[in-house]
Amino acid sequence: MKLTYEQIKNITWGADRVELIDEYFRFFRFTKEQELAYYYRSLGGRYKKVSLAPCVKLVFKTDSKNLWIRGVTDNTSTRNFYSIDVFANGKPVGYIDNFSNTELPEEYSSVSLPAGDVRGTFSLGEEEKTVTVYLPWSCKFMLSSLNIDEGAYVTPVRPEKHMLVFGDSITQGYDCLRPSAHHIVRLGEALSAEVKNKGVGGEIFWPELASLAEDADFDYITVAYGTNDWGSTDRATLQKNCAEFYATLSKKYPNAKIFALGPIWRKNCNEIRSCGEFSNVIEDIKNCVRDLPNVTFINCFDFVPHDSKYFADLYLHPNDQGFDHYYKNLLAEIKKYI
Questions:
Q1: Which residues lie across from 259 on neighbouring strands?
Q2: Which of 87, 100, 125, 296 is most exposed, with minimal Cβ within 10 Å?
Q3: Residue 133's beta-bridge partner residues?
Q4: Do the Cβ atoms of 178 and 33 come closer than 8 Å?
Q5: How far apart are CA 67 and CA 69, in angstroms?
Q6: Tally of CB atoms within 10 A around 25
Q7: SS3 (DSSP) at 314
Q8: Is residue 118 scored above 90 in pLDDT?
Q9: Full-prediction pTM beyond 0.90?
């Protein structure tokens, strides 16, 4: 039985909207207003990354014993690997990816792998179960069909909380192999929250993005910029943009618990860049939110071990093991304030 557009839309978490375009389901995490703003800004190919779907997942209860997924991927970002993860009752039942039959090097972030047709059949087991399908963060994914057994039912599962996240490539998902391993995905699940992910690779503090409308209230908001600002702006500009970004969020979402996340360690953090020392960025973020009543600063510098083996590119973007450390340390810190 092929799920309809309405069924697909009702089981989707993390998307602003779902559209049926040329017989493919497309998942959009940015509002049309935000997409237009990125189109006109269009710096460093960032607009292309807006079409990706990090933290978007399909969640539903079913008594079907089987699940079939069909679709197409398109290499849109600077990463060519992808995975679609299928879980039942919180445990993995299988993956669709383009790397399992390849021996990946330790530094796998720049490996070249093909995109194209996506097909997968999954055995879900007996009885009712909650199924979660995690969509890839690294490429454009267009779903052609999601099928279950004839006569089986699909019941949407809705979140208890709502979470909004801003950030750069690490927030987007660079470089976890499995989208289910992403620290933001796991944080949302630990907080029982649907996540709207606005992370874009290469991004810096951009106050206009904070001001663009979202048609929802949020319980939690995280912001994780700074590592790109360090080398692309001067310190005065960083301080100005950071202060404006957080002041806008604080006023716009007065009932949300907002967490200002300092950047994690990077191998070249001892260099001097346009903002000076890397520690200047951490200090400036902390100072910018000091007087905002609903914003809490969290220093994440030590949340991933200072060892290149926890980074897919060996210096900046965590691998799945690095994201595991990031998630556990971030969750432990956030729990102190909620």
A1: 222, 296
A2: 100
A3: 58, 86
A4: no
A5: 7
A6: 21
A7: coil
A8: yes
A9: yes
Neighbours of 161 (CB within 10 A): 14
On the CB side of 255, CA atoms within 13 Å amount to 6
Closest CA to 135 of 195, 222, 217: 195
Contact 170, 318 (CB under 8 A): yes
* C-alpha–C-alpha distance, residues 323 and 311, integer Å: 9
CB-CB contact of 243 with 229 (8 Å): no
Two tokens, residue 327: 């998630």
Instruction: Assign 20 to helix, strand or coil.
Output: strand
Alpha carbons 96 and 144: distance in angstroms, whole number: 15
pLDDT above 90: residue 42: no
Question: Can you give the pLDDT at residue 78?
Answer: 84
pLDDT tens-digit series, residues 70-109: 999 998 778 999 999 999 999 999 999 999 999 999 999 9
| One-letter amino acid of 98 | N
Encode pLDDT of 255-296 as tens digits.
999 999 999 999 999 999 999 999 999 999 999 999 999 999
Q: Hunting for tokens 């978007």 — which residue is that?
A: 56
What DSSP assignment string belongs to 171-187?
HHTTT-SSGGG-HHHHH
Q: Please report the pLDDT score of residue 84 as a whole number.
A: 98
Q: In the chain, what are the helix, strand and coil shares in percent, each to the nearest 5?
A: 30, 30, 45
Closest CA to 168 of 210, 237, 226, 211: 226
What digits encode the pLDDT tens for the residues 184-225?
999 999 999 999 999 999 999 999 999 998 878 999 999 999
Contacts of 146 (CB under 8 A, 6+ apart): 2, 3, 8, 58, 67, 68, 69, 70, 133
Share of the chain above pLDDT 90, in %: 95
- Please state, in angstroms and rounded to a whole number, the distance separating the CA atoms of residues 33 and 10: 23
Distance of CA 141 to the CA centre of its chain: 14
78 half-sphere exposure, CB direction, 13 A CA radius: 17
Q: How high is the mean pLDDT of the chain? A: 96
Single out the residue of 274, 265, 271 nearest to residue 310, CA to CA.
Answer: 265
Look at residue 37 and give its three-state secondary structure. helix
